[in-house]
Amino acid sequence: MNKEISGILLNKNAWPIEQLSCVRTFHKQLYEWLDLPYEKYMAGAISKGRWQEDIFLPNGKAISPFSAGMCILEYKRTAVFVQGIYAAIHDALKKYSHRPIRILYAGTGPFAPLALLQTPYFSADEIQFTFLDVHEESLLYLQKLLQLHELEDYAETYIKGDATMFNPKNYPELEKKEKYDIIITEVMQRALEKEPQVAVTINLCKFLKPDGFFIPELVKVSLAYLIRGNDYIDEKNNTLIRKESWQGKTTLLRLGHRNLPDTNTRGKIRLGEIIVPDYYNKEMEPYLLTDITVYKENQLTKNDCSLNIPSPLRYDIQAGSKLEIIYKLDNVPGIAFEKILSTLE
Q1: Which of 17, 135, 212, 259 could form a disulfide with 208 if both were Cys (CB 3.0 to 4.6 A apart)?
Q2: Is the CB of residue 190 less than 8 Å from the CB of residue 222?
Q3: Separation of alpha carbons 223 and 4, rounded Å
Q4: What is 294-325 written as a DSSP string?
Q5: CA 13, 114, 331 angle in degrees (round to 5)?
Q6: Taking Cα atoms as reference points, which of 327, 178, 192 lies closest to residue 263?
Q7: Separation of alpha carbons 294 and 299, rounded Å
């Protein structure tokens, strides 16, 4: 595996354009290595087959192998996750005396980039991966990719299955093994909607050592109110300057192995109640904001990538309203409002 690509993505001082060029090159190389027609897929000339089929699960959508692979092209997202995982592996190697460090990677897609990009820095004697994905197509291509680069020794095993229902006891090769030192799962969209990150996290945490490392460490969804100003053109630099401010940011959900939500209510996670500020008016736009701590200082925040684009609140609210907020654990997961109560009640 090309150490130069990993090095650029691990370099926190690299120029954004350098990292963008790097992920584009890497993405194209992956297709070429697997004898996939890159230009035709990118042009949309091939639109059928399992490579481009989403799977709709009881706890959310598992995006297609094609779409999963496209995530690599979000350079900051890829770089920050690669940096965070590198730091977590480094800390795990210092913390634990045993070798190898066991890592569960759930939702690999066809390329498992968050694992692949670590291999120039850690040997197969140091780290071993259980690769878990619900798409058989993804695992077949991943196996081919590892074989091509003589990286098979990094794979403890490959598991086809729904990560929300994964249990090592169901697999003879895993049932007698200890819990995982590190778990990686990135199966989400902004505001933790549509994909099963919440359900996957709740399930997989049971198989993490009590002092283990979970990636991402924390995902936080908040409600905030956007106030737009008058945009203007900076004539000197010929750029559009957006005038906006955010008010009333309130955390609704914190998801991580140390912040598992209460799931006693079947199909719902009750997140509590908030009161819409009295100063709220129709000129203000309510949004859900997503902040991600991959590991320690490696973080993604507003507009860093598609996971952090503010999500407009599709619910009519009024100043002074009391909102009871839930997270739906169903086939279309996400934050919702079960009821609105007047503060006078």
Answers
A1: 212
A2: no
A3: 40
A4: EETTEEE-TTSSGGGS-EE--S---TT-EEEE
A5: 120
A6: 327
A7: 6
Burial of 261 (0-12, 13-18, 19+ CB in 10 A): middle
CB 185 within 8 Å of CB 129:
no
> Count of CB atoms within 10 A of residue 322's CB?
15
Report d(CA 27, CA 68) in Å as an integer: 11
pLDDT digits (tens, 9 = 90+) for 132-177: 999 999 999 999 999 999 999 999 999 999 999 999 999 999 988 9
At 136, which helix (H) or strand (E)? Answer: helix 136-148
**Mapping DSSP to helix (H, G, I), strand (E, B) and coil, where does residue 291 land?**
strand
Check residue 342 and give its pLDDT.
Answer: 55
pTM above 0.90, yes or no: yes
**DSSP type of residue 106:** E
Which pLDDT does position 343 carry in this prediction? 46
Tokens of 318: 């009024």
Q: Which residues of 294-313 are buried (b: 16+ CB within 10 A; e: fewer)?
A: bbeebbbeeebbebbebbeb
Beta strands in 197-305 (DSSP E): 208-215, 218-228, 232-234, 239-241, 244-255, 268-275, 284-295, 298-300
CA end-to-end span of the chain: 63
Q: What is residue 178's DSSP assignment?
A: P
